[in-house]
Amino acid sequence: MSLVTEFNDYRGKMNEKIMASDNKVIKRIFNLDTNTYAEGALSEKTKEMMGLACSMVLRCDDCVKYHLGKCHELGVKSEEIQEIFSVATLIGGTIVIPHLRRATEYWEELINE
């Protein structure tokens, strides 16, 4: 099973369980997240690229994978991804490098699917 399939399957399964709890606050947070990345003054693509950079700096591998997937869906090119990686690594420092490695591996899987 590929990294992409494994991540998406797990994320989907767990999101279903979380939403089944019918917790109003959690549902509102999920909705806020969805609405934040919707098209607005900034394009959805721009917002996803920003989300990717922020997630790398915050060192959240699940978030990095999610935003890489969305960037791929929205047509972000590998050259653009490399520039996002460079900004995130500069801002986050060398502690981001392990996440950069995993992000590079995940991006390669996305583009080779």
TrEMBL record:
InterPro entries, A to Z: AhpD-like, AhpD_core, CMD-like
Pfam families in the record: CMD
Membrane spanning residue stretches: none
UniProt keyword annotation of Oxidoreductase present: yes
Residue ranges annotated for the Carboxymuconolactone decarboxylase-like domain, each copy included: 27-105
Keywords (A to Z) from UniProt: Oxidoreductase, Peroxidase
Gene Ontology MF, one: peroxiredoxin activity
Keyword Oxidoreductase: yes
SUPFAM superfamilies the record matches: AhpD-like
NCBIfam families assigned: ahpD_dom
Protein name: AhpD family alkylhydroperoxidase
Organism: Arcicella aurantiaca
